[in-house]
Write a structure and sequence with these properties.
Blueprint: H1 6-18, E1 36-42, E2 65-68, E3 74-77, E4 80-83, E5 87-88, E6 97-105, E7 112-124, E8 131-132, E9 137-139
Antiparallel strand pairs: 1-2, 1-6, 3-4, 4-9, 5-8, 6-7
C-alpha cells in the first residue's frame, strides 16, 4: 500500500491535535468537539492493541493530564506532532517505578489514540515530578 503524502500527514495530525479541518474531507465535531487531549504515563509499551489502562503508572498521586487541543498545545508538521510546552504530572507521594512510554487519548474512558516512547525514561520515587518536555514528539505510523 502506498503511504500518505507529507501534506496529508500534516493535515491528519492538525485535525486530531489542533482541531483544524481538512478541506473538503473532514471537519472537527461541530456540536461538542473535544477541547483537550489526555496524556497518560506507562511503565511499559501499551502497544497498538492496548489502551490507556495498559501498563499504567501507579505511583502515589499519579493522574493523567490534559493539553489544549489547539495550536497553543501542539505543533503538527509532516508525520510528527510535538508538545508546545512542558507537561508536568503530579509529584509522586509514594511508590517507585520507571516510566518508559506515554499515551494520548480523548479523555473518554481508557480510549488511546496514540502512544510513544519517552526518550529518557523517568525514574519516579517519592518527591519526583514526572515531566514530558516541550518538543516531545509523536510520529504518525
Amino acid at each position: 500500500m502506498a503511504g500518505k503524502s507529507d501534506a496529508f500527514e500534516t493535515a491528519v495530525n492538525a485535525l486530531f491535535f489542533t482541531a483544524v479541518a481538512i478541506a473538503d474531507v473532514a471537519d472537527d465535531d461541530q456540536s461538542t468537539p473535544a477541547t483537550t487531549l489526555t496524556f497518560g504515563l506507562h511503565v511499559g509499551d501499551p502497544g497498538d492493541s492496548g489502551d490507556m489502562a495498559t501498563t499504567p503508572a501507579t505511583y502515589g498521586s499519579y493522574a493523567r493530564q490534559t493539553v489544549s487541543r489547539s495550536g497553543s498545545g501542539f505543533t503538527a508538521s509532516g508525520a510528527t506532532v510535538s508538545l508546545d510546552a512542558d507537561l508536568d504530572f503530579p509529584e509522586a507521594s509514594s511508590g517507585s517505578e520507571t516510566l518508559t512510554h506515554f499515551s494520548v487519548g480523548t479523555g473518554v474512558g481508557d480510549n488511546m489514540m496514540y502512544s510513544g516512547t519517552i526518550t529518557s525514561p523517568i525514574v519516579v520515587v517519592t518527591g519526583v515530578t514526572p515531566r514530558l518536555n516541550s518538543g516531545t514528539i509523536l510520529t504518525e505510523d
